[in-house]
Design a protein that fits this description.
The complex is a heterodimer of chains A (166) and B (248). Chain A has 166 residues and is an all-alpha fold. Chain A is 75% helix and 0% strand. In chain B, helix 1 packs across helix 2. Classes of the chains: A mainly alpha (166), B alpha+beta (248).
Amino acid sequence: MADLDFEKLVEDYHMPLYRFALSLSRKESDAADLTQQTFYLWASKGHQLRDASKVKTWLFTSLYREFLGRQRQQARFTDAENSAELISAQSVPASVVNQLDGKIVRQALLGLDDIYRAPLALFYLDQQSYREIAEVLKIPIGTVMSRISRGKAELRRTLTDERGQA
Amino acid sequence: MEKERAQSILSVYRPDNQDETDPFFAEARAELARNPELARWFEEEQAFDRAISEKLADLVAPFGLKTRILANATPIATRQWSWTTRFALAAAALFLLAQILGLWRTHSQKTRTLAHYQQEMVSFIKLDPPLEVESHDLAKMQTWLGQENAPSKMDLPPRLAALQPVGCRVLWFRDHKVTLLCFQRGGDNLAHLFVIDRAALPKLKPGAKPVCTGEGEWMTASWAKEDHAYMLVTRGDRDTLMRYLNDT
């Protein structure tokens, strides 16, 4: 993996990694630190990766682990997931979203519970597939589907509330 | 296939048919042709996903992050070498490192000019950046900036200090934290003040008159005072900007 151009790697991935980090940490300075730390990890450990096609997953997974390591609140994840009610797929037209300010949509995403925010961020911000999301977050595909489905429902509910208050 | 199962699968189908060839979705997609209600739901779901993605597309990394990453991480290359080769490589690497560090320093100094700083900071405010603290209380913001180890004890020109602050955030420029303070100056117009450690812009000398430069529709004025370098940015002409700095 030494053949990979580090500067090119940073050029290609620093933006999507930062966006993912921001969705996790909700704070720009922490997101910048997480992104930097991920590349630092790559610089020191990336050579151990044998499959060049896994670089993207390696970077996102490392960032996610770094975030979890810093947060150390996994217990809250489990509790939140277990207590989550089944949310009906209420319909919020795309036209409603189009009328909203980007900042409001961003805040709505950042306001979601951690277990929904991480998969949704990968889905919306980086257009990652369900398989890639499962690999990055180290969760089964079925869990990815349920978290994205419920996360979208939560997002719709928040956006509907925002629109109601506007 | 049950409708709920199909919905669950199709909820992870990415917009613009990115997953068209993935067999995982084949059965659920076939169900769309048989179930008009499901098809309507899917169409709306895809439109919703596209709309959310577009709304989130303006999320960008702070300027200087890439430089900061490259400056702080050097990849390790690995191979199995004999000890003599390793020794020779280590010696060569030390020599090269010294050369590279010298080059990097030169490059870093070249890209640490006031023009680069102006360009990057103005590019940033053109994107209408989100503020990390929204407040009218300057003291409160200074406390927060201090906690973030960003420039917080600044000496504001009196006419600028008379404006109402609206918020602040922290940026990066070549390993230095930059404070951005925004002030309301009537209507939707803001005055943006960037403050950075003076060491980041060594050519800006304290006591000298502000350096004014136009950057598209934006006008910038930069000056140094004690330990900080300041840059005020407003939309409009030079006179509009200098109105706030006549006492500097």
